Amino acid sequence: MTQDERYMLRALELAELGRGRVSPNPMVGCVIVWQDTIIGEGYHRQYGGPHAEPNAIEAVKDPGKLPESTVYVTLEPCAHFGKTPPCAALLVAKKVKKVIIALVDTNPLVGGKGIKMLQDAGIEVVTGILEQPARKLNKRFFTSIEKKRPYIILKWAQTVDGFVARKNYDSKWISNPSSRQMVHQWRAEEDAIMVGTNTAQYDNPRLNVRDWQGKDPLRIVLDRSLRLAPSLSLFDHQIPTICYNSLKNSEEENLSFVKLAQDLPLVEMLKDLQQRKIQSLIVEGGSFLLHKFIENELWDEARVFTGQRKFSEGIPAPRLRPSASTSYDILGDRLEIFENQ
User: Fold this and answer.
1) What is the DSSP string of 242-254?
2) Which of 70, 169, 170, 241 is 20 to 30 Å from 316 by CA-CA measure?
3) What is the CATH number for 103?
4) For residue 224, what is the domain's CATH number?
């Protein structure tokens, strides 16, 4: 590993600390190095708050060292005014010597403009250091920009004989407590979570974060004919919730009913979520809804738990064409990660 890669790896580690807190912005980390010594570190901590570069500069105890320093940042510094002033302009004002960037931003608002601002000021710029890990870190951000839809994660638990529920739709409990705690961690990290009509009716899920610290995701249910009972937990007005349907548009406290066309409901729903700046979506079931996402190639990642129980009969689990890219043992449950590349 080169010296530049070592410092960029540290910047990526810092960027990861913003997971679940900065969307719809990307996660960004920044390290400032003077004479092979880190003198400042920072990351984007909260959406609407300072970006990684000003946080790292603020951590530098001797600003007089900045003109002889190299700045490592995981994504091209912004050159536009958004919630905060442009970071590229700040680096120019501080007269840093060199900026090393992992990844050029594909956001049209940035897209090379930050690099040009730095170069026009006489600052040396290097790009492409640990580019692939940097892109993977912000795959949700880049999916939103490039595919014009949220990053979609399919998640389900299946029995060892391949069922997601019994014939009466009962599915408790296929996975173990440790696996279920992991799911709550994932909920805290993503923007939205979705279930279909049957899952909402038979499981009555709350779809909130309970066994982990973090924000609750936006709750989404697809109920085309509006047959779900208002007494269900999804309609308790405690957490922002969208009910996509084919009948009406209306607004209540923390509850929106959004009418979709009959022919392309998933495509139209994802378009609406994109407009709401939702960058990531976990689809937790049921089987029919998961199949629809798979059939329409509307997924980026699947996380599948296989527990140790057998149902012998019931509702079959979805099938995926690609092989799992990664597999983990979660205290007896098997977790497989699939990627739709």
Assistant:
1) EEEESS--EEETT
2) 241
3) 3.40.140.10
4) 3.40.430.10
